[in-house]
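Protocol step 6 of 9: fold each sequence in the batch and record its structure tokens directly after the sequence line. For illustration, a two-sequence batch is reproduced in full.

Sequence one:
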Amino acid sequence: MPLAFVWPTDGLVSSTFGRRRSGWHRGIDIKAEHGTPILAAAAGVVIASAVEPRYGRVVKLEHAYGIVTVYAHNDLNLVAVGDRVAAGEMIATVGKTGRATAYHVHFEIRRGGRAYNPLYLLPLPPRIARVEEMNENHLDDE
């Protein structure tokens, strides 16, 4: 994917992409304090700003090359469908809405209906070395 992404929020990755006992985790969970800004990972257009049963308050952005990013469990969504956003622009705040037990942002990168591991597409900051072990007490069931 020829698109450069930025981290949607600052925090430790508490749950990684991939297989879980309860199914497949289509993104990563990034722990952050309640109300922490959530940023657009790349420039794009808002295609959803809604509430969904599992994701709670969720924002979905469409980017170049048919790429979609998803930001879930938000406390507040700050954008509306049709809004154009820049990379790094604040689009929501961290919450624990939907099926979440702790404050975090669930972040996905999709293209053509397929989910990609965000850790392979985000820049590698030092905090990645501190990925917490995935365990049965994961933050959500997405």
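Sequence two, same batch, same settings:
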Amino acid sequence: MSERTTALGRAVLLLASAALIAKLFAAGEMVKYITPALDPLTALTGLVLGVMGVMEAWRVRRCHPRRHAAEHSHGHGAERPLDAALEAGLTYAVVLLPLVLGLAVAPRALGTSALGGERVTRLLLTFAPGAPAAPRPPKPDEPLTDTGALLAYLRRVADGSIGQPVRVTGMVMRSDALGAGEFALLRYAIAHCVADARPVALLVVPPTPAADVQTDQWVEIEGEVASREREGDRLVTIVAHRITPVEEPRNPYLFAAY
């Protein structure tokens, strides 16, 4: 493969990578891959890739096609550069394909399929063993109108949160292991990127009649924190007063350290 062709391949890959990063930022979709805390570093990476791509493209313009003796040779000597060119072309194609898909397809948040068949009962959040909750739980500093805020409050006061009004958003996860009409509200928390995502699930007891919601559907739930005894565990439970189907939020992951 000639120097000009190699430089052209590198320029395409570098510029496509920079374009993908720019597209994700412009569309507000970077949060579906990586924590916002790393946005400055990611933007810098895109800038560096773009500059490198422009430099490679400049090299392509300056390079003149050269004829090599190997291109005119016959027999076994001609097979080696052909094989090398084919291998390089396949390598470029394999690297370029995910970049093209990233530019053409809008990303979606992880769903229940990412759990790999793990039982929902093993994911449900539980209160630590101990004395029952106080009759008058302490009030949170701010209204619990977000799933992350609820989890942070649970970490601080544990079962002292029972009785507090909440509004949480998440995906529906149904299972035969739960009671009639019950489902789990699923969210994923990430530390750096989607690769380290871990599931967080809350038991939801819907109002009567039970809400008609499907697995992987995003819902907003207004209710209050409660507790349910299951197989010796005290499950963190949301007793729902209202369940409303909603669109997938722009920022579907939890990033706060709760």
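Proceed to step 7 once all outputs are recorded. Observation for sequence two: Residues 67 and 158 are 74 Å apart (CA to CA).
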